[in-house]
Design goal:
This protein has about 160 residues and is an alpha+beta fold. The protein has 5 helices and 4 strands; from the N terminus they run βααβαααββ.
């Protein structure tokens, strides 16, 4: 078992476009609404290549290996990466409460605990302006939420 780190920073309105953040699913039938067919086509063409965070954290594993920001065997190492990323962006967090060093340390500690038992971690913060930051740690080989997902670096 190992852990992959993912991070995204971008406009909140891009993050809100859920159709690109969901895998395609089952192909629509000929009797499906045009909106359903359009969403399916968009998901097929964009989901795997888009750097937008998926709705389900485990689905990061469906993205290309280039989306991975780090890989660690030990949960503690992944937690340290998370802590550094959060600390680096904390001055830009829109909420003053989210900037607190104690809170950030507790988030990193909780992440390590979750990774230890095979869980995933997904956090998001509004930054000043209209920017959103999403960061995730995903347990791989196997993923607890979706054990059938392949490791993007082992295939």
């Amino acid at each position: 078992m190992h852990h992959h780190g993912y991070a995204w920073l971008g406009e909140k309105r891009a993050f809100d476009k859920e159709s690109v953040r969901r895998p395609p699913g089952q192909a629509p039938t000929g009797s499906s609404d045009q909106e359903v067919r359009d969403r399916y086509r968009e998901a097929v063409s964009l989901f795997r290549t888009s750097d937008l965070p998926p709705i389900q954290t485990a689905h990061w594993l469906l993205k290309p290996p280039s989306a991975i920001r780090g890989t660690w065997e030990e949960p503690k190492e992944a937690g340290e990466w998370l802590a550094l990323r959060l600390a680096g962006l904390a001055p830009r967090f829109a909420s003053e409460e989210n900037r607190a060093a104690t809170r950030l340390a507790l988030l990193a500690k909780a992440a390590v605990e979750r990774l230890t038992w095979g869980g995933d971690v997904s956090l998001g913060h509004y930054l000043t302006g209209t920017v959103f930051h999403s960061i995730a740690l995903v347990t791989c080989s196997p993923n607890r939420a979706d054990p059938g997902l392949p490791c993007p670096t082992c295939t």
